[in-house]
Amino acid sequence: MRYYLICFITCLLISAVVSPFVIKASKKFKASQTILHYVEAHKGKDGTPTMGGIIFILTMMFSFCFFTKNFQLATISLAVMLAYGILGFLDDFIKIKFKQNLGLKPYQKIIGQVGIATIIAFYCYYSNLVSSKVFLPFTDILVDFGWLIIPFIIFVYLAVVNSVNLTDGLDGLAGGVSCAYLVGFIGLLLIYKTTAITPEMVLEYENLLILSFCAIGSVLGFLCYNINPAKIFMGDTGSLALGGLLCSIAVFSKTTLLIPFVGIMFVVSALSVCLQVIHYKRTKKRIFLIAPRHHHFEKNGDHENRITFVYIVITIAVSALAIVITLYAGGF
Q1: pLDDT (tens digit per residue) in 8-34
Q2: How far is it, in rounded angstroms, from Cα 163 to Cα 75?
Q3: How many CA atoms lie within 13 A of 13 on its CB side?
Q4: By mean pLDDT, which of 69-78, 133-142, 164-173, 307-316 is the weakest?
Q5: Helix (H, G, I), strand (E, B), or coil: what is residue 134?
Q6: Which residue among 57, 161, 186, 237 is least crowded, i.e. fewest CB within 10 A of its CB?
Q7: In whole angstroms, what separates CA 6 from the centre of its chain?
């Protein structure tokens, strides 16, 4: 545990120290965010530097070289984060270059996301470390999906990456909820590590734990400058990268089916958008004042900090409940 804390503190310090330099560089190169016109409360944020995800991506990559041995699952998790981060960077770059809020076209994003997810899905299917088996939620029972694991993993990556992206609408929201999610999965990884039947798998779980602690430290360092009022946004560079990392940790530890529980607030964001679109197409009426759900609360007069705090608390509470149920009722 001491080693995990060293990883966390080191990443936190590096991220916090690097952030002001990235903010200064972003302002120099005019890498600022154009705010959507229908989010009235955010008009004052127009011109805020973006692409802040670079901060925690670089921090994690640098720290990874020192804190983890070259084991497959942690290395590939980091590679997935980088791949989605690059896709998000392209999206942000187009927004900045053309001074608009629309970057890559929707179909271009989907092609990129599906491409990355497909590579990972086939890797999982053919890998002895991951395979086609997944733990049933809160248990030590493995269910074999067979070849269906391929489309299942593709779907999960698309769902998680886009849910995190949708949650990135308020200062500190996506980063704060992601840290809470990672805390939950650290607890679950410590439990599921006991199911590892080979020394190799024990080390793989330990490296996923190290990666999770590095991620929390890196994102918290970034959040020092991202909480309201934000001095820099993570942009799609950060939100897509975070989504890829959060999903990878669950998929590679075979705890994929626990994502909806620990990532409950990501589900809320995605589900609110889906329900709004479907209902509006059918009735021309809206369920929420605006979607995702956090903007609805904002329209109702709730402050960003309050919404962010509640989202984080709910994530922590549900994560703690998931850990307790898994530990005491899951057969471990």
Answers
A1: 999 999 999 999 999 999 888 777 766
A2: 24
A3: 7
A4: 69-78
A5: strand
A6: 186
A7: 22
Q: Apex CA 105: angle with CA 104 and CA 107, to 5°?
A: 120
Rounded to 5 degrees, φ, ψ at 32 are -110, 160
Scored b (16 or more CB within 10 A) or e, 202-241 reads ebbbbbbbbbbbbbbbbbbbbbebbbeebbbbbbbbbbbb
Model confidence pLDDT, tens digit, residues 63-117: 888 887 767 899 999 999 999 999 999 999 998 887 776 778 989 999 999 999 9
User: In the predicted model, what is the mean pLDDT of the chain?
Assistant: 92
* Cα 105 off chain centre by: 21
CA distance 36 to 106: 17
Q: Rounded distance, CA 231 to CA 133, Å?
A: 43
Inter-residue contact 65 to 78 (CB < 8 Å): no
Provide the H-helix boundaries in 193-263: 199-223, 235-252, 259-262
Q: Are 214 and 60 in contact (CB under 8 A)?
A: yes
The whole model's pTM is what?
A: 0.95
Closest CA to 176 of 235, 112, 242, 250: 242
Q: Give 52-61 pLDDT, tens digit per residue.
A: 999 999 999 9
Nearest alpha carbon to residue 77 among 177, 189, 169, 180: 189
Is the separation of the CB atoms in 129 and 248 below 8 Å? no
Question: How far apart are the C-alpha atoms of 214 and 202, rounded to whole Å?
Answer: 18
Backbone angles phi, psi at 295, to 5 degrees: -75, -30
Which tokens hold the place of 234? 């993570």
The helix-helix angle for 106-126 and 72-97 (nearest 10°) equals 170
Per the CB < 8 A criterion, the answer to whether 10 and 63 are in contact is yes
